[in-house]
Amino acid sequence: MAEVDVAFIQEPVHRPNPSLRQEADGIPLIDLSAPDFDALISDIGHACRQWGFFQIINHGVPPERLQKLEAAARKFFHLSLDEKRKVSRGGLDKVMGYYNTEHTKNVRDWKEVFDYTVKEPTLAYASLDEDDDTVAYWENQWPENPPELREFCQEYATEMVALAMRLLELVAMSLGLPPGRFEDFFKDHTSMVRLNCYPSCPSPDLALGVGPHKDPGVLTILAQDDVGGLEVKRKSDGQWVGVKPVPNAYIINLGDILQVWTNDVYESVEHRVVVNSVKERYSVPFFLNPSHYTMVAPLEEMTDEPNPAKYAPYNWGKFQLTRKQSNFMKLQVENIQISHFKN
Ligand SMILES: O=C(O)CCC(=O)C(=O)O
Ligand SMILES: [Fe+2]
């Protein structure tokens, strides 16, 4: 008999095999302070094409920002469930906050989460109805305890936005585009930060911290602690490989929107999180997302007659809201994906 609730149990094909666990040495490690700028752009282009994932060092974010945030996150997740539920997510009017019931591909994730948006408030759609463009204001829910969490979260988010916009300039240049090519998409950006706590798990062979998925936004800047558990599906052979924790490094992965913008020249890559029976693990992803009214479509510069657009335009805000609603529950149907807009 499994020791975890049946809702957490992955289909056999998705179960991790701890004895086969590999660590990828191939994931590129990029030094953002490297003096040769052309080489930096070329390394980024290479990493985006080959992996869709890379780690960065010398990125300029002071390490204390993350240390303070992680310490406060630890205090928060160690509060009683009743206390944490005072800032619970729920429904279209409370999109941010705490929850422990997320499902990826209809299987419950072994994790607890606290979400907050960078912009306060964040402009979004009020309804899932395609024809209704009424605006909603997403508000963050800050817990009373620990009192420092709010300030540390906000400080951290500011750093992440600056770093993400710098990375996006490098990504644009790696595609031969002007550095500011993507800037206009972020005027009212809907970016968010997630504090993830993965408790130790009695059946790490049956459950996953996060099931296999691709990030729907533009790009993700992930901080992981020294426990490890993030795995990437290697593009060359489809093998799951672990991303080794590197002190003070951030992991960057491309999201679905960059895949669509580049018309599949760059691809967002599937990843998942394995848990372990001994240690709890913390991670902090920052998701860079465009303004809610953005119509996502392949860039003109990335398409021409022999190479037409591979995706029909879709509305980011509606897509995001649909995802947010459906990740709450076990659905009868597959969650919305960019493949649904493939021409
Ligand atoms: O915790 C991690 O390492 C990754 C989390 C993740 O992939 C996500 O939240 O989208
Ligand atoms: Fe992810």
Automatic annotation (TrEMBL):
MF terms (GO), sorted A to Z: metal ion binding; oxidoreductase activity
Tagged with keyword Oxidoreductase: yes
InterPro entries membership: DIOX_N (IPR026992), IPNS-like_FE2OG_OXY (IPR044861), IPNS-like_sf (IPR027443), Iron_ascorbate_oxido_reductase (IPR050231), Oxoglu/Fe-dep_dioxygenase_dom (IPR005123)
Domain Fe2OG dioxygenase: from-to ranges: 188-290
Coiled coil feature spans: none
Source domain of life: Eukaryota
Record-stated family: Belongs to the iron/ascorbate-dependent oxidoreductase family.
Protein name (Swiss-Prot/TrEMBL): Fe2OG dioxygenase domain-containing protein
Lineage of source species: Eukaryota, Viridiplantae, Streptophyta, Embryophyta, Tracheophyta
